[in-house]
Design goal:
The complex is a heterotrimer. Chain A has 7 helices and no strands. Chain A is an all-alpha fold. In chain C, a hairpin with a 7-residue loop joins β1 and β2. Classes of the chains: A mainly alpha, B mainly alpha, C mainly alpha.
C-alpha cells in the first residue's frame, strides 16, 4: 500500500518537474491535468476506508482537475492563440534546478516536522511542500497569464496533498468548497486571459503595468 | 558452467548488437506503414563496409584512424563488464562500473578528436555537441549507480544488478530506470536527442562526427555504436527484469526478449516523438540527473 | 641517511644558479652548470627518498637554532614527506633539462641567469618545506619558496602582464603567509612548542582545533588554489616560462596540499564538519575549475584552471579520508588519502607534461592563443603525441595514471554508502556523480584543446611555420609519458609507497597496506593491458582491411561547399560555447558582438572571453573600495617635516597620558 502511494506521489513530483521544464503550454496543461488525476486517486491509498463522501470527493476532484479545468484552459489557449512561453524571467534550466533545490530542502525540512506517527515515513509532506514551491516558482517566473493559472493550480495541488493527511478530520463541505473556489478562480482567470489578449494583442502579464497611473 | 556462461555471454554480446539496430528500424517502419529494411540489414551493411575501399581526407592524421579503433575496442571491452544474466560477467571486480563509464569516456575522446582532425566545421560542431551532452549524461548514470550500490551493498556491477529490490525500493528503481532510459537515448544519439536518419548536417550529433569516415573505418564505428547500445540496453534490461531462474535455458531467452523489447521501445519513442530543439536537450538531461538524484535521496532519507 | 641525502640535494639545488651569475651573459656554460647541479641535486634527493623506502632509514636531524626561541633546524623524512619529495626533485630536474632548449641563455641573456638562480632556490625551498619538522623552519622555507616563485613569475618583468600577475601572486601568497603565522601561533599555544608533532587528545579545545583547521585551510588553500582562493593562480601560471609553469602547477601548489595533509595529521579527533567542508570545497573547485578552463582560449591559462580542478579532486580525497577518521572507517581513510596522494603524483606528472608540451608549442609558434593554432600534429609529431598522452591522462581515462587515482577516490566515495547502513559519512557518496561530471567536462575540454591546437589545419601563419622542438625539450616529455604509463599500468608498484604515506598521515592505522591491497589494483592493471592489447589488435584489423581495399585521398567533405578555408574550422571558442552557456551564471562570460546592419554589412568581428569571476567581481572591487577607504588617511600625509615632528610629539604625549591596564 505504502509502495503504491509512494510511487503515485513520485509520479506527481515528476510531473512538477515536467511542468517546470517545458515551454509548450499544452504540455504543461497536460502535466497539470495528469497530476490532478494522480492526486485524485490518492485518497484511496492514504486511508483504508473513505466512505461514500470520499468517493464523491475523488470523482469530483478527478473530474474538475483532470478534465474540466484543463479543457477550459486549452480552450482559452486556442482563443488567445498562443502555444509557447518563450522568455520566462528565469530560464528553464534554472527553474528546474531551483525546483530541485526546493524539493531537496522540502525533504530535509519535512524530516523535522512534528508529524503523527503513521505519517512519518510518507512522502506526502515533502511532496506537498515541493509542489507548493514549484507552483510558486511558476507563478512568479512566467510571463503568460495562462502559465500563472497553471502555477496557481499546482499550488493548490500542493495544498491538497497536505490536506490528504487530514482527510478524516476535514469536513466534506470544506473540501468541496475549495474545489468550487478553484473552479471559479480558474474561470475568472480564463475570462481575464481572454480580455488581456484582446486588449493588448498578447497575453503577457507584463503589459498589465501599463494600466497603472 | 562458468566457461559455458562466459562463452554464451561473449557470443551473444558480439553477435546480437546489430540485430537491435535492425529491430529499431523495423519498428519505425511498422509505425510509418512501410515494409522497412530487413531485420538483419545492419549485418549486411557491416559486411559490405568492411569490404569497401575508403577515402581519407588529406588533412587527417593517424588520430583520424585511431578514432574508430578506440571507439570499437572500448565498447568491445565494455560488453565484457556488463552482466547479462545472473550475477556473473566475464570480468567481475570491485569498481568495474567505473571502468565501464570511463571506457566510454576514452572512446568519446578519440571519436571526437577524429572528428576535429578533418578540420570540417560540421564535424567540429558534432564533436562539441557529443562531449557537451555526455557531461550531463554521465552524472545521471552515476547517480543511478549510487542507488544500486546502496541497495546491494556491493561495488561490482554483476552483484549490483543481480536482484534489484523492486518490492522495497520500487520508487527509487523506477526513477533510475526512467533516468537511464533517457541516458541510453542520449548516449546512443537517438531521438529526441539526435536523429540518426537525418541528412541535414547542421542538426546532427553523432552522425555528423563520422561524416568523413568511410569503408572499414565506418564499419568499425557502426559496430562500436551497436555494442554501446547493447551495453546500455543490457543495464536497463537487468534493472527492469530482475528475474533469475535456476535454468540457464530460460534466463538467456528472457534476457534476449528484454533486449528486443528495449529496441522496440526505442523504436516507439523514435516514431512518436520529434527531435528536441538543441537548446532543450540539456534540460532533458538535467531532468534525468534529477530523477536519479531523487532516487538516491529517497533511499538515504 | 635519507635526511642527509635530501639535505645535500637541497643544498645543491639552492646553489645551482649561483655559478652562472659569475659567468658572462652570452656564454651557455652557466646554464649547463646549473642543469648539471640540478641533475646531481635530484640524484641525491631521489636516492634519499629511495633509501627511506628501501630500508626505512630515517634519522631525524634536530639542531637548535638560537635566533628565535623555540626554533630549531629540525628535519625528518617520513612516508608523507617522501611522497611529496619525488615530484619536487623529478619535475625540477626535467624542467631544468627542458630549459636548455626552451630558455637558452643565448636567446634570453637579460633574464636567463635570474631565472636559473630562483629556479634552484624554489626547488630547495620546496624540498625544505616538505622535510621541515619545526614551525619556524617551515615558515622560513615557505617564504623562500614563495619569493622565489614571485621572481620566476616576473621573469619577463619588462612586460606589463608579467608584472601584474606577479603582484597579484605576491599579495595572495603573503596573505596566505599571514594566516600561516596565525596557524603556527595557535599550534604553539596548543602544544607549547614549534615542533610539528601530533597534538595529544585534550591538548586543545575543539574550538581551538577548528581555528587551527580553518587557518590551515585558508593559508594552504591559497597556495593550493582551492576555488574561491585561487585568484593568483591562472595568470601566474600563464605568464611564467613554461618549464616554470610546469614546476608551479605540478609542484608548488602541491605544497599547499602537503600543508593540509601535514596539519590534519597533527590534529586529533577531526569532527565530521571538517571532512564535509573539504569534500564540498573539492567538489566546487573541481567543477568550477574545469568549467572556467573550458571557457579559456589562452593555452596556458586553460591548463592553469585545470590545476584548480585537479586540486579539487585531491581535496575530495583528503576530505573523504578525514570523514573516514571521524567515523572510524579505515577503508575510507585509506582509499581517500591514497587516492588523493596518488593524484598529487599523477597531477604533477601529467600537468608538467602538458605545460612542457604547451611550452613546445609556444616556442614553435610564439603564441598562446588556441584559436591561432591548428594542424600542429603534422609539424610537431612528438610534441603532439606527448600532449595527447597528457590529455588522456588528465581526463582520468584508462589505461593511464589519472584513472588509477580517480578510481581509488571513486571506490572510497561509493564505499561510504555500502559497508554500513545509515552512517554519517554516507552523504559523501553524493560527491561521486560530481566527480563523474568533472571527468566528462575534462574530456570535453581536452578534446577542444587537442583538436584546436594539433588537429585540423593551421589557422594562422604562426602555426603554419611551426617546427618540432629539439631533443632537450622532447626527452623530458618522453620521461613523463613513460611515468604516466607505468603508474597507469602497474599501480601495484606504487601502492606500498602510498600505504606508507597514509600510515604517516593517520598514525592510528595499523594496516593501511592491507586495506589498500583490498582495492582491485591488480584488475586495473590487467584491464589496462587488455585495453592496450585490444587497441593494437583493432589497429591491426583496420590496417589489414585498409591494405586489402583501395584507399584514396581527397579533400574533407565540405557538405557541398567548394571553397572551405582553414578559418572556417570549428574554433575552440565555438567548441566550448554550449558548455560555457550552461555554466553562464557562474562564468559570466563577456561577449562583444557587433551589430550587423544593411544588406551588405562591413567586415566585423566577434569576441568572447571568460574572465575570472572571483578576481574580477569580488577581490578587485574589494581592493578598490579598500583603496578608496584608505585614501582618507592621505590627509595626514602633508609632506612637510614639521608636521611629522608634530605627529611624533603628539604620539609621545598620548603615550604619556595613556595608563596601561
Amino acid at each position: 500500500m505504502a509502495q503504491v502511494l509512494d510511487t503515485l506521489v513520485i509520479i506527481a513530483l515528476a510531473l512538477n518537474f515536467f511542468a517546470l521544464g517545458v515551454s509548450r503550454i499544452r504540455s504543461v496543461i497536460n502535466a497539470v491535468a495528469a497530476q490532478g488525476i494522480v492526486l485524485g486517486v490518492l485518497p484511496f491509498f492514504v486511508h483504508q476506508e473513505i466512505g461514500v463522501r470520499g468517493v464523491a470527493l475523488v470523482v469530483a476532484t478527478i473530474a474538475i482537475k483532470g478534465f474540466v479545468i484543463p479543457l477550459f484552459l486549452i480552450h482559452a489557449m486556442r482563443e488567445a492563440n498562443i502555444q509557447h512561453e518563450v522568455t520566462p524571467f528565469i530560464n528553464y534550466m534554472s527553474s528546474l534546478l531551483l525546483g530541485a533545490v526546493g524539493t531537496g530542502l522540502a525533504l530535509v525540512f519535512s524530516g523535522t516536522l512534528p508529524l503523527a506517527k503513521e505519517h512519518e515515513g510518507l512522502l506526502l509532506v515533502p511532496a506537498s511542500l515541493s509542489t507548493v514551491w514549484v507552483g510558486f516558482l511558476m507563478l512568479t517566473t512566467r510571463k503568460k497569464a495562462i502559465m500563472q493559472v497553471l502555477g496557481y493550480l499546482l499550488l493548490e495541488n500542493g495544498i491538497f496533498l497536505f490536506g490528504l493527511l487530514l482527510l478524516e478530520a476535514m469536513p466534506f463541505l470544506v473540501e468541496i468548497g475549495i474545489l468550487l473556489d478553484l473552479f471559479t478562480g480558474v474561470f475568472v482567470m480564463g475570462i481575464i486571459i481572454h480580455h488581456i489578449s484582446r486588449e493588448f494583442a498578447s497575453m503577457s502579464t507584463e503589459h498589465l503595468t501599463e494600466l497603472k497611473d | 558452467m562458468d566457461i559455458t556462461h562466459n562463452a554464451v555471454h561473449i557470443i551473444l554480446a558480439f553477435s546480437m548488437p546489430p540485430l537491435l539496430l535492425g529491430v529499431i528500424a523495423k519498428t519505425k517502419a511498422v509505425f510509418a506503414g512501410r515494409v522497412g529494411p530487413p531485420v538483419l540489414q545492419a549485418y549486411y551493411d557491416l559486411a559490405k563496409l568492411f569490404r569497401k575501399g575508403s577515402v581519407f581526407s588529406t588533412t587527417t592524421t593517424w588520430v583520424f584512424r585511431a578514432g574508430p579503433v578506440v571507439g570499437l575496442v572500448t565498447a568491445g571491452l565494455a560488453v565484457l563488464l556488463v552482466p547479462l544474466v545472473h550475477d556473473k560477467t566475464p570480468i567481475p571486480f570491485t569498481g568495474d562500473f567505473i571502468l565501464l563509464a570511463y571506457l566510454f569516456g576514452l572512446g568519446r575522446f578519440f571519436t571526437a578528436s577524429a572528428a576535429l582532425d578533418t578540420g570540417s566545421a560540421f564535424e567540429g560542431m558534432g564533436a562539441a555537441r557529443e562531449v557537451t551532452f555526455a557531461c550531463l549524461a554521465e552524472p545521471a548514470l552515476f547517480l543511478g549507480l549510487l542507488v544500486l550500490a546502496k541497495l546491494s551493498g556491493s561495488l561490482s556491477l554483476a552483484t549490483m544488478l543481480a536482484k534489484p529490490d523492486w518490492v522495497n525500493a520500487g520508487a527509487s528503481l523506477a526513477l533510475v530506470l526512467l533516468s537511464w532510459f533517457i541516458v541510453l537515448l542520449a548516449e546512443n544519439s537517438r531521438i529526441p536527442f539526435d536523429d540518426p536518419n537525418t541528412h541535414l548536417e547542421l542538426t546532427m550529433i553523432h552522425e555528423v562526427m563520422v561524416l568523413d569516415h568511410s569503408g572499414p573505418a565506418l564499419g568499425m564505428i557502426l559496430y562500436g555504436a551497436a555494442l554501446k547500445f547493447f551495453v546500455f540496453g543490457a543495464l536497463i534490461v537487468r534493472l527492469a527484469i530482475p528475474v533469475a531462474t535456476d535454468y540457464p535455458w530460460l534466463d538467456w531467452p528472457i534476457f534476449v526478449g528484454g533486449m528486443l523489447a528495449v529496441a522496440v521501445a526505442v523504436g516507439v519513442v523514435e516514431s512518436t516523438m520529434a527531435r528536441l530543439r538543441l537548446t532543450h536537450v540539456p534540460i532533458l538531461l538535467v531532468a534525468a540527473c534529477l530523477l536519479s538524484a531523487f532516487g538516491i535521496i529517497l533511499l538515504m532519507r | 641517511m635519507s635526511e642527509v641525502l635530501v639535505l645535500l640535494g637541497t643544498t645543491l639545488a639552492a646553489s645551482s644558479g649561483i655559478p652562472g651569475l659569475f659567468l658572462g651573459r652570452r656564454t651557455p656554460a652557466g646554464q649547463w652548470l646549473a642543469t648539471l647541479l640540478t641533475v646531481a641535486a635530484a640524484g641525491f634527493g631521489l636516492s634519499g627518498v629511495g633509501v627511506f623506502w628501501a630500508w626505512g632509514d630515517s634519522r631525524p636531524i634536530d639542531v637548535p637554532w638560537p635566533i628565535v626561541s623555540g626554533a630549531a633546524f629540525a628535519v625528518a623524512v617520513d612516508g608523507l614527506s617522501a611522497l611529496f619529495l619525488v615530484p619536487v626533485f623529478l619535475i625540477s630536474l626535467l624542467g631544468s633539462v627542458y630549459g636548455l632548449g626552451y630558455w637558452k641563455q643565448s636567446e634570453h641573456p637579460e633574464n636567463g641567469r635570474k631565472l636559473r638562480l630562483f629556479y634552484g632556490l624554489l626547488t630547495a625551498g620546496m624540498a625544505l618545506v616538505v622535510v621541515a619538522r619545526n614551525g619556524i623552519l617551515f615558515l622560513a622555507a615557505w617564504e623562500v619558496m614563495a619569493l622565489a616563485a614571485f621572481f620566476l613569475v616576473t621573469t619577463e618583468d619588462h612586460q606589463r602582464p608579467a608584472r601584474e600577475a606577479g603582484w597579484i601572486y605576491l599579495v595572495a601568497t603573503h596573505t596566505a603567509t599571514l594566516v600561516l603565522f596565525a596557524l603556527f601561533a595557535l599550534l604553539h599555544a596548543a602544544s607549547h612548542s614549534f615542533a610539528l608533532v601530533p597534538l595529544k587528545d585534550g591538548a586543545a579545545t575543539p574550538g581551538m582545533l577548528t581555528a587551527i583547521f580553518v587557518c590551515a585551510l585558508v593559508g594552504f588553500g591559497v597556495k593550493a588554489g582551492i576555488m574561491p582562493l585561487h585568484v593568483w593562480l591562472p595568470s601566474a601560471h600563464a605568464i611564467a616560462p613554461s618549464h616554470v609553469s610546469a614546476l608551479m602547477s605540478g609542484v608548488i601548489i602541491k605544497m599547499g596540499v602537503y600543508g593540509l595533509f601535514r596539519v590534519t595529521s597533527l590534529l586529533p579527533n577531526p569532527p565530521l564538519a571538517w571532512g564535509g567542508t573539504l569534500l564540498g570545497l573539492g567538489v566546487v573547485s573541481g567543477i568550477l575549475g574545469v568549467a572556467f578552463a573550458i571557457g579559456q582560449h589562452d593555452l596556458k591559462r586553460l591548463l592553469a584552471y585545470h590545476s584548480i580542478e585537479n586540486i579539487g579532486i585531491i581535496i575530495m580525497g583528503l576530505g573523504l579520508a578525514l570523514l573516514g577518521r571521524s567515523v572510524g572507517r579505515a577503508d575510507l581513510v585509506v582509499l581517500g588519502a591514497a587516492g588523493g596522494l596518488l593524484h598529487v603524483w599523477n597531477h604533477a606528472l601529467f600537468k608538467a607534461l602538458l605545460f612542457l608540451g604547451a611550452g613546445s608549442v609556444i616556442h614553435a609558434t610564439h603564441t598562446r592563443e588556441i584559436d591561432h593554432l591548428g594542424g600542429l600534429s603534422r609539424r610537431m609529431p612528438y610534441t603532439a603525441f606527448c600532449f595527447l598522452v597528457g590529455a588522456v591522462a588528465i581526463c582520468g581515462l584508462p589505461p593511464l595514471n589519472g584513472f588509477v587515482s580517480e578510481f581509488l577516490v571513486y571506490l572510497g566515495l561509493f564505499g561510504s554508502l555500502t559497508r554500513d547502513k545509515g552512517s554519517a559519512a554516507a552523504g559523501a557518496a553524493l560527491a561521486a556523480p560530481a566527480l563523474a561530471l568533472i571527468g566528462a567536462l575534462a574530456v570535453a575540454c581536452f578534446v577542444k584543446v587537442y583538436g584546436a591546437v594539433f588537429l585540423g589545419t593551421a589557422r594562422s601563419p604562426h602555426a603554419d611555420d611551426a617546427h618540432e622542438s629539439g631533443p632537450s625539450m622532447i626527452a623530458p616529455m618522453g620521461v613523463l609519458v613513460a611515468c604516466c604509463l607505468v603508474i597507469g599500468l602497474a599501480p601495484g608498484w606504487v601502492a606500498p609507497l602510498l600505504a606508507q604515506g597514509v600510515s604517516a598521515w593517520d598514525r592510528s592505522l595499523d594496516n593501511a597496506g592491507a586495506e589498500l591491497a583490498a582495492a582491485p589494483l591488480g584488475w586495473v592493471s590487467l584491464m589496462g593491458l587488455v585495453l592496450l592489447a585490444g587497441l593494437l589488435l583493432g589497429g591491426g584489423l583496420l590496417w589489414c582491411c585498409l591494405r586489402r581495399s583501395d584507399v584514396a585521398r581527397g579533400a574533407t567533405w565540405g557538405c557541398g561547399y567548394v571553397a572551405p578555408t582553414a578559418r572556417m574550422q570549428y574554433t575552440s571558442s565555438s567548441f566550448a560555447q554550449m558548455l560555457v552557456g550552461l555554466f553562464a551564471r557562474v562564468l559570466l562570460p563577456r561577449t562583444r558582438r557587433p551589430a550587423v546592419v544593411g544588406l551588405f554589412p562591413q567586415g566585423t568581428a566577434f569576441h568572447s572571453d571568460v574572465p575570472d569571476t572571483v578576481l574580477d567581481r569580488a577581490v578587485l572591487p574589494a581592493f578598490r573600495s579598500g583603496a578608496w577607504l584608505f585614501s582618507w588617511f592621505r590627509v595626514f600625509q602633508q609632506g612637510s617635516i614639521q608636521t611629522y615632528i608634530l605627529y611624533i610629539f603628539l604620539a609621545l604625549i598620548a603615550l604619556l597620558l595613556w595608563r596601561g591596564p
